[in-house]
Amino acid sequence: MDDFASAAMVRVLMHGMSALGLPLPATATVPPVGTAQVALDLKRTLVTAAVAQCGLACLPRLGRGVLAFPDDPTHRALTAARDGLEVLLRWQRLERYVHSAHRTELEVLGDARVAVRHVSVRPGEAPSAAEDLVVIGVLAALLEAIGLDAPRATIDGVDVLAAAEGDEAAHETTLRRLAGAGRTGSWTLHWNATVASRRPARAAQAAASGGQAAPVDLCDALPWPEAARRCARDALADPLRPRTLGEAATALGLSTRGLQRLLAAAGLTWSTVMAEARVRSASWWLLETARPIAEIGFLAGYSDQAHFTRDFGRRVGLPPGRYRSDFTPGSVPPR
Fold this sequence. Notes:
The protein is of the alpha+beta class. It is built from 15 helices and seven strands.
């Protein structure tokens, strides 16, 4: 079985290494735009090179490379979360969507404290200590990206993200001890419960810099009642956030049964409205951007690649790749 890594994660590692002044291996090339997956060996080559140059302690800092891509659609989907726990849940959803061999398991310990286990879906193939430490760094950086101050990751009471001032050598020794004992696969993430006020400024900066996002009015031209269009706009504004009929009804000032009746009178159901929002979002990404198809389903809110391909084909009549090739502006219409 071929093993693959996320091209986005590889770009994060490369940027993280460059930010630390670490030269990239001669064989490592930046994945081209439009690439969703690369060979897993490339990711492992980068991690090995980083460890050889500055030890295990630099690995969590490589994860901070994710902060260099605020306008990347996947980054924006992850950091549209309203709190720290939702960031981690969105990360889990991404792991499932790309069928990652490594997954995070969560146990909520409090309002701003979560126990995390980094595991493999393949028995006997646990993530390496280096891979554990990189993921710790990425998750901490994503928490910071939504405005949470000073996230920490502790193992046996040791903050693996930062050494005490002047204790870099001792910190490296501690990390190697934890790695040797097989302790790096479980850690606790801590953060301040209140999102910092700088987050709106970051969002405005991202919007001003031209970051891509599907329009929220993609369903407005449909002959739907206004309540249905409002539900679709809400779904299009943040496709990854779970929604229920009851929550939507409350937001509209209606009872759950009242919203159901209103939708039914127009020949609609709640699931129909959500499905239409997803497929219109996906079609916009396919025609208006060069994002890889393997990423578009996630951005549009589908649970996995198979769900995306199946549902899109059933509703549109063409698989996503054929739809893009046939209908992208400037393409030659099929005969």
